[in-house]
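During the reporting period the student researcher (J.K.) took over the structure-prediction task from the postdoctoral fellow and processed the backlog of single-chain submissions. One of the processed entries is reproduced below for the supervisory committee.
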Amino acid sequence: MRKHIPNAITCLNLLSGCVGVTFAFNNNLIYAGYAIIVAALFDFADGLIARGLGVYSILGKELDSLADVISFGFLPSAIVYHLFLTAPQLGELSIYLNYSAFLITAFSALRLAKFNIDVRQSDHFIGLPTPANALLVASLPQIIAQSGSFWSSYILNPYFLFIFSLGTGFLLVMEVPLLSLKFKTFDIRENTFRYILLICAAVLILLFKFAAVPIIIFLYIALSVIQFSLQDR
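J.K. obtained the following structure tokens:
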């Protein structure tokens, strides 16, 4: 039974993503974003429990990636697609432009496939992890609801959404090493940048709530670039 516990939790990640998709296609984007958060919690828990129980398996790794394609690939695309539909339409151009939202799914699948065969990513990531990218997408409807018309006029712009879809796709597959938040020890000197990120993220969320997520993602990338630049010297 022990070896099946992490896989069961991974399936809960997948189910959360499926439920989130139904929310998205019923235009309930806030709850679709919540589904991403729940899926991310299950995604974190399955690996943690697998390591704790000592039951790592190839099956679990493959199942995790398949679940992530739905929860952190297709679900974010569904959210962005409905933001496209809410945005002012650009005549015949929008018929094609709206579907660019699903570039997020394609790049997420590519990123997950690369992760499964890339031996360099044992203690850090190459490219933005799919859960982080999905949380970035989940923040958009929340920011609109939180800030009213101020940010919605920028976010609900088809050109912005197109650039956002392409940009996040690039972040997923870029050849840039990024921090992993897996702590091997709790030594401050070994984890300085991890602690800075976690503390700043907590403060930013308290101050700005969901609007903090894009700032946190930018900070995550910036701190990662600084740390790995210093290591290369």
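The committee noted the following: The first helix runs from residue 5 to 25.
J.K. will present the remaining backlog at the next meeting.
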